[in-house]
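Lab notes, practical 5.
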Amino acid sequence: MNHIRNFCIIAHIDHGKSTLADRLIQACGGVTQREFHDQMLDSMDIERERGITIKSNTITLNYRTPDGQDYLLNLIDTPGHVDFSHEVRRSLMACDGALIIVDASQGVEAQTVANLFLAMEHELELLPVINKIDLPAADIDRAREAIDAELGLDPFEAIPVSAKTGVGIEKVLAGIVEKLPHPTGDPNAPLKALVFDAHFDTYRGVILQCRIMEGSLTSKDTIHFMHGGRDFVVDEVGYNQMKLCPRKQLSAGEVGYIVAGVKSVQDIEIGDTITLLDRPAAEPIPGYQAARQVVFSSIYPMSTDQYVDLTKALDKLAINDASLTYEKDSSAALGFGFRCGFLGLLHLDVIQERLQREFDIGLVISAPSVKYKLTLKDGREIEVDNPSYWPDPMNIESATEPYIKASILTPEQYVGPVMELCREHRSESQTMNYLSVGRIEVISEMPLGEVLFDFYGKLKMITRGYGSFDYEPIEYRKTDVVKVDILVNKEPVDTLSYLVHRDKSRTRALHYCERLAKEIPRHQFKIPIQGVIGGTVIARSTIAPFRKDVTEKLYGGDVTRKKKLLEKQKKGKAKMKQFGSVNIPQKAFVAVLRADGD
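Output from the prediction step:
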């Protein structure tokens, strides 16, 4: 066990985690030069294209030190984006140490600090690494100052590397062996194994990624999930070494995979504790937290005959992504669809992209919303995330919405615009911490619903890309939230209803009305488009009608003939308006909701 190291790589998004993992894999001979490609541990096309890690991945490497000692290094590459922090949390539970990467040109960012606190919560040993020293803008001394001032780690322990060119990789491997602790655990105790990840294989079912804390596990053992209460017989155990490498057994301290005939990821809980059925452990491993969905949106197929395809596609995605939740939903305008729960806007974006790309399904996605808690006048308490289920305002006693504690790191010159941006998004309190020369942390408490739409994009714009953002949910607070309905020709369009704070209701209603007025084709009669709260109209646009020239055939005579024809046309238009229905094209929904999401 002294020759095993379990560690993960944590950092802010785009600080070079996957590139460093590539160099470590190459240095340890984990893959041949012919098989190598960039971002080895990012298995999805969308991860490689966007240059982000969405799903954490693990690999076991064999490392021989210069003095001839053999070590087993279990590396877990984790995501950096705030939406996937639960992946990082699970990975940290399976580790004894972590490499924390700081970009030599950008310094410490918001997610770096958040991941540091997560690692300290799990009592991990941290080894700082200064990456991207090959860049012209790299400032290693300033990065060391930031590591000391903002992370509270020893700046002289930090190893300067260039993951791109391979400079300093040997020092990182030596640091992992010397500075990070080896795992502890009794191989003869009852089995305790932490399931920190899982993925679905078409031929073998769910393959579990596990860290053995105590005891040992061999094939043909019957395992028991302590939270889920289900039992399975183990078919195979082994190491992940770019491909599955079977072993006779996994012992305390080791990280590997288990194949046990599990049919779906929903049959188990990620973060569960595995023990042996005939020799169970006394209690599960503490510290597990379930993934919390914070953004909710309805997904409809572009054409109704694709509903069955969408159902199958979501089933397949949920097999690999346990944090996606969905239930059936329907809309009068768009037909049948699903109400889905996501971890954040990037998660929603990734799922949408995968549905369109992997399954070739055109989608219409409703405006994202958060979960509100309502107290009704009869004393009942309910949770609502879908405008369709919003009760009559007369029955609502009070409403609360989720708040977050946002941490924004920004260069000093952009503090004014950042604080103004927070105020525009209903920030309730703002404090500033001076971290190092020229860098300030703005901590603000604000509603989660305000961050959903354009906050992150605006922050990047006003800070010229240097601002970074991280948040954690804190509590529910009282709010004045209203349901805004959009009426087209006085008929409500349920898909376009949304929940919003009263102060922001008119602005968004106006935006919806103007967009629809541009997208809906003109009819023979005038079409009013209105945004309403209850019976009160708060915004309106009008689509002018086509007008046929009924007086064209007249060649003279008295003016009363002309008036008579115009009067007849006017009556006909009034009758048409009464009985005529407005055809809203699909692209109108897409345009309104996309513009809103942007």
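Observations recorded by the TA: The mean pLDDT is 79. The CA atoms of residues 22 and 40 lie 6 Å apart.
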